[in-house]
Amino acid sequence: MGAEAGEEEAPLLHPTLPSNSTIKRTGTIWTGVAHIIAGVIGSGILSLSWSMAQLGWIAGPLAMLFFASITLLSTFLLCDCYRSPHPEFSLTRNRSFLEAVHQTLGIAYTVTTSLSLRAIQKSNCFHKEGHDASCEQGGGTLYMLLFGAVQVILSQIPDFHHILWLSIFAAIMSVSYSSIGSALGFAQVIENGYFKGDIGGVPAYSAVEKDTLKSPPSENKTMKTASTIAVIATTTFYLCCGGFGYAAFGENTLGNLLRGFDFSEPYWLVDLANACIVLHLVGGYQVFTQPLFANIERWIAKNYPNSRVIDSVRGRLLLIKKPDPTNAAGSARWLVSQNSWGVLNTISSDLGGAPFGNVVSFSDGPPGKGRGIPYFYLTTLDPTAKNALQDQRSSFTISEYSLGTCGKKDPENPSCAKITLTGKNKG
Q: Which terms are listed as keywords in the entry (predicted)?
């Protein structure tokens, strides 16, 4: 969703602006679709075949369609909150979804990028050394550090208005690896000669809502149209990827669909899919963190409008064009927000007990006594699980892989997820 700044240097620093402000918004339906797909079709789509294996052929697709409908409904409601009190004609714009910005840390992107890079290395090892080779891979620390370094550089992009090209590129990568995964699954079904097999991995995207759509038509109508197109497209990919993966491997489906093709030929196609995942996550990370940067800048601009400390170091440390001398928050963007945030994400991803894909789960009761209903909101408004961990009804299970107690088991093997906390686990 493109935008051009008018008289203001940093429009995102202002929490509310009248409709007749000098900011020129140029976003359209299609730029909206690009940003949504870049943020929504994440690598979690590769775990849908595993989820389908747990639910079966009837409940699996129905669950995905149900959550797609709920996601679309919640997004429509959010679109109507952009202007208040009237969704179309009010002068006051609500320009950020603060809760989602505070809670979206990007840790899963860092971990998944590392796993995809390791998968490429492992695939090439099998191709060169043979399928019986051990091809043991070390930890993903190096890859996480590389991902963090790339994000530090990309975070120098001035604001969300300048990353349309990155969202389009990330969306193309999303479609690419989803298509490759679906095609490989379909090819495996043909090779098998039959369909095998007797969902919380579908993300919502309320946090992708951005304040860059032009008007008229009213922003909420444009966003609803873009959301409808994006949901139809993403749901189609979810059904294809989950369905073909389940049909190909049945009850033996792994948590990551591409892991089932480690020994497949052409091996370069699997490598290409994993490379597309990495490139998509590089762009998708920025889609979610740019609103965070804007909120931190807004707070700094409000509380420290003329910081001499920040002004004194701006010229030496800033990698982007110097902001106006009075714009202390613009300098703080590099010093306080963009670099440190990427580093914190990278470091926290390598801490013991960090979540790995589908081995973290929540239920509505203690182990063995719950009703089997996942304890999550219908849309992922609580990705850090703060509320779930403070609720007496919830239980939390996490992988032991990162603690080194799983031996040679696959980190996504459910038998590795043995640490369970129950009740009000604050912290």
A: Amino-acid transport, Auxin signaling pathway, Membrane, Symport, Transmembrane, Transmembrane helix, Transport
What spatial distance separates the first Cα and last Cα of the chain, rounded to whole Å? 37
Across residues 219-237, what is the average pLDDT? 75
Residue 321's CB is within 10 A of a number of other CB atoms, namely: 8
Domain boundaries, the chain: 3-349, 357-422
pLDDT tens track for 109-125: 555 666 667 776 777 67
Angle at 141 between CA 135 and CA 143, to 5 degrees: 75
| 305 CB neighbour count, 10 Å cutoff | 11
Which tokens sit at 217? 């038509």
Q: What predicted TM-score, i.e. pTM, was given to this entire model? A: 0.36
Cβ-proximal residues to 362 (8 Å cutoff; 6+ apart), any chain: 374, 375, 376, 385, 388, 394, 395, 396, 397
Asked if 39 contacts 284 with a C-beta cutoff of 8 angstroms, the reply is: yes
Task: Please give the Cα distance from 40 to 58 (Å, whole number).
Answer: 24
CATH class of 3-349: mainly alpha
Adjacency order of strands within the sheet including 395-398:
361-363, 395-398, 419-422
